[in-house]
């Protein structure tokens, strides 16, 4: 029974745009099954998701284009179900099932 | 967290937190406010006249796509009476411009605007691929930047259009202000802050209607309006992505979002201290008095004057920065010049010599405008920068062919 909670996963969709697609297999939308809790048993937050994406989804070695000093790179916007994550608690936002998280870079040109 | 309601309509869920004033807005209110502010910039700066033909410098990227969309919307909503066309530059970089040009072609259909593409090859006889083949990747941005600046003007001339608008945003202008500040180039700093560049004498004027728009809001506008744009990074300048000034601006924005517009306004205020023309094209506030720091009104407010030099100048600036490091005497030069003026006594502060970052050590006065003896393009030298660069390139090609 305890094993069930440990392996519980949250189904979400993660989108990348504004040039970030290139770090993630040139694909805009990814379906992700995120572990419901982190290594310390805390509910999965966006901070946890960002770390998870770097370790599990990113194809490109240039992680610094996505994360700087363990935080999302300045200039990358994060939208939680279309809302600016600044309205949702930023890194501390707890991921809910079927959430859509969009990472969009403002850093790339035309 | 409970959903936050829009501060404006108080009914819809807020989705946007505005960097300039932290206002929390819903999608519809945000889109309206964004458009209203650009409209305000356009009217208070008297950017256009009815019936004017205007070319939108279109790259397929977020800024120019948003610019085209907003201008079309405002032109119809407020009856500007503008004839809008899209003008794109093909630098001739395989695998880079191809996809974005496809985006521009779709934009032309979506916005019902005619599109003209002018290529470096037809204008200069060189594609950027060929330039890089000849000179290598290092320094190629200088060529590209110089060529692009002229290319937009020449494209506009071909179309009989005297006004080109570009998608430079507040972040871009702040970045340029910082770079020019770091280079000690007040003359260019002055020019780079004005919303309109080029005057009655120049054949094509440039303007930046999005000068006060945050890059963040441009991206959000494109997202929420589901605009079709393309993001890419030039394959020849990977270092530009990690660009120093840009990184600094973005970090500052995180700590204090208003910093970006504050830098733009500081740039405008400094520009007013530079002698010569500082066209106060914005009729919004009293700009001629540097002391009356205008308080931002809630619709966007304008400062004084005009925008940024060509697009891809980060690398060129980086290069010049490195070169300038050697010129420590520049600093001494200005101090000396200032004290000399003081001794002379009679002169006012406005007559301080303004240095140009890349001119070695003389206190250079403002550039005198003339025409290139070779191509006829507006230039402060006998031979314009593009023709100088082309001369070097053509010599190299001749050698290779032998």
Automatic annotation (TrEMBL), chain A:
Q: Where located? A: Cytoplasm
Concerning its family, UniProt says:
Belongs to the URM1 family.
**Which SUPFAM superfamilies does this one have?**
MoaD/ThiS
Going by the UniProt record, its keywords in alphabetical order are: Cytoplasm, Isopeptide bond, tRNA processing, Ubl conjugation pathway
GO CC field? cytosol
Q: Which domain of life is it from?
A: Eukaryota
What modifications does the entry list under PTM / processing? C-terminal thiocarboxylation occurs in 2 steps, it is first acyl-adenylated (-COAMP) via the hesA/moeB/thiF part of UBA4, then thiocarboxylated (-COSH) via the rhodanese domain of UBA4.
| Summary of the function given for this chain in its UniProt record | Acts as a sulfur carrier required for 2-thiolation of mcm(5)S(2)U at tRNA wobble positions of cytosolic tRNA(Lys), tRNA(Glu) and tRNA(Gln). Serves as sulfur donor in tRNA 2-thiolation reaction by being thiocarboxylated (-COSH) at its C-terminus by the MOCS3 homolog UBA4. The sulfur is then transferred to tRNA to form 2-thiolation of mcm(5)S(2)U. Prior mcm(5) tRNA modification by the elongator complex is required for 2-thiolation. Also acts as a ubiquitin-like protein (UBL) that is covalently conjugated via an isopeptide bond to lysine residues of target proteins such as AHP1.
Keyword Cytoplasm in record? yes
Q: Which parts form a coiled-coil structure per UniProt?
A: none
Any keyword Transcription regulation? Answer: no
Q: In which pathway does it act?
A: tRNA modification; 5-methoxycarbonylmethyl-2-thiouridine-tRNA biosynthesis
Per its record, how is this protein called by name? Ubiquitin-related modifier 1
Its predominant location is: cytoplasm
Against PANTHER family, the record matches this protein to: RURM1 PROTEIN
Q: Name one Pfam family in it.
A: Urm1
Q: Where is this cross-link: Glycyl lysine isopeptide (Gly-Lys) (interchain with K-? in acceptor proteins)?
A: 110
TrEMBL record, chain B:
Pathway the protein takes part in? tRNA modification; 5-methoxycarbonylmethyl-2-thiouridine-tRNA biosynthesis
Q: Which domain of life is it from?
A: Eukaryota
Which GO cellular component terms are attached? cytosolic tRNA wobble base thiouridylase complex; mitochondrion
Q: Does the keyword Metal-binding apply?
A: no
Give the Cytoplasmic tRNA 2-thiolation protein 1 C-terminal domain ranges: 370-401
**GO terms (BP aspect):** protein urmylation; tRNA wobble position uridine thiolation
A GO molecular-function descriptor? tRNA binding
Q: Does the keyword Chaperone apply?
A: no
Query: Where ATP is bound, by residue?
Result: 57-59, 63, 89, 167, 172
Alphabetical list of InterPro entries matching this protein: CTU1-like_ATP-bd, CTU1_C, Ncs6/Tuc1/Ctu1, Rossmann-like_a/b/a_fold, TilS/TtcA_N, tRNA_thiolation_TtcA_Ctu1, UPF0021_CS
Ranges of compositional bias, category Basic and acidic residues: 339-353
List the subcellular locations.
Cytoplasm
Group of enzyme by EC:
transferase
Provide the family line.
Belongs to the TtcA family. CTU1/NCS6/ATPBD3 subfamily.
Functional summary from the UniProt entry: Plays a central role in 2-thiolation of mcm(5)S(2)U at tRNA wobble positions of tRNA(Lys), tRNA(Glu) and tRNA(Gln). Directly binds tRNAs and probably acts by catalyzing adenylation of tRNAs, an intermediate required for 2-thiolation. It is unclear whether it acts as a sulfurtransferase that transfers sulfur from thiocarboxylated URM1 onto the uridine of tRNAs at wobble position. Prior mcm(5) tRNA modification by the elongator complex is required for 2-thiolation. May also be involved in protein urmylation.
Name this protein carries in UniProt: Cytoplasmic tRNA 2-thiolation protein 1
Name the source organism.
Answer: Corynascus novoguineensis
Which lineage ranks, top first, belong to the organism behind this chain?
Eukaryota, Fungi, Dikarya, Ascomycota, Pezizomycotina
Its gene is: NCS6
